[in-house]
Amino acid sequence: MDAEERRRELLKVVQTRKSVGLDELVEHLGVSRMTVHRDLDLLAARGLLRKQRGGASAESSLLFESNFHYRQEVHQPEKIALAKAAARLIEPGHVIMLDDSTTTLQICEEIKDIENVTVITNSLAVCEKLRARPDTQLVLAGGNYNDTLEAFYGLLCEQTLRKLRADWTFMSAPSVIGTCLYHQDQEVVRIKRAMMEAAGKSVMLLDAAKFRTRALTQFAELTEFDHIFIDRQIDPAAARSLQQAGITFELV
């Protein structure tokens, strides 16, 4: 494994077992104690785990789960599949909005061969992905920068988004309860609502884990979205509940 692969594996072990000793990590990864110490320091600095005497433990708070680096590490195959499915809606010349989610971030990889796409976003990660692409027009809605979420929020960001118009808005949510979408941060909720109001059509991308988590603030109903893409690993009971509620969605 290279360094990044090793850190992903280390993080996976800690997330799965919740608490792991240093010697166990050394044996599992086949590297020195010093290397594991360095990896733990890096991952702890990113907010992905808590380094403690003799090992590491997983965080579990809502603040931790909203951490951009944490979200970027989990459910990657599902997010890529969802992004591929959603990107089929995008045509040359379209104007799209991408929120700050790590699921819609994957759409950046899927629009490489689509000419003259304009992307409006509040996400610094999206900006980094697209800033060097000559065929992509990039519009960054600035405002108050949040380092934990790696995106911009606040009144200036909202006002900018409300003055723009897009063909599509693509977004995700950390929690689905019944047919409602929730987020733990009211600042993020306001930006998502502004994006939905600024677009002709809205698209929701959800991996199966979103149906097992809880957050504080409702920001939308699934019925408000023109297309809904859901990871096919969704619990069958949850899928049946959506169908019974009249929600149309595509399993990916």
TrEMBL record:
Keywords: DNA-binding, Transcription, Transcription regulation. Residues 3-58 form the HTH deoR-type domain. Signal peptide: none annotated. GO terms for molecular function: DNA binding. It holds the Pfam family HTH_DeoR. It comes from the Bacteria. InterPro entries: Carb_Metab_HTH_regulators, DeoR-like_C, DeoR_HTH, NagB/RpiA_transferase-like, Tscrpt_reg_HTH_DeoR_CS, WH-like_DNA-bd_sf, WH_DNA-bd_sf. PROSITE patterns: HTH_DEOR_1 (PS00894), HTH_DEOR_2 (PS51000). PANTHER family: AGA OPERON TRANSCRIPTIONAL REPRESSOR-RELATED, HTH-TYPE TRANSCRIPTIONAL REGULATOR SRLR-RELATED. This is DeoR/GlpR family DNA-binding transcription regulator.
